[in-house]
Amino acid sequence: MAFTEVNQIKGDNQKYRLSPEIKKYSLRDVGFMETKTGKFELERSLDPNSPYNQGFKFKMTVEADLKKFKMATLTANGMREVDVHKGKDVDTHLEQLNFILDNLIERQIIEKA
């Protein structure tokens, strides 16, 4: 998946873009880790019972210049993008995903496009 200015989660109609108010320290406050290349990455489990269970996860990466990003819901090993709107435990996965996205919106990291 390529870095773009507007992204959406597979199976969701809502699109998101980076907030014009985004700051590097805000990314760190939320839990983003800076890579060796200067990009910021966030990975969160979509299992509300344990962050260590092997289930779906949300991953978001922001370029070092804070202009473009990518985000996706992935399998536990991170190799394949999945649609959390289908399958078993849809309600719990969506609740956790929406909690993560709402937190990113509240912290002015992303906004609805």
TrEMBL record:
* Lineage top rank: taxon: Bacteria
Alphabetical list of Gene3D superfamilies matching this protein: Lp2179-like
Q: List the Pfam families.
A: DUF1831 (PF08866)
What this protein is called in its record is Cysteine desulfurase
* Organism listed in the record: Ligilactobacillus aviarius
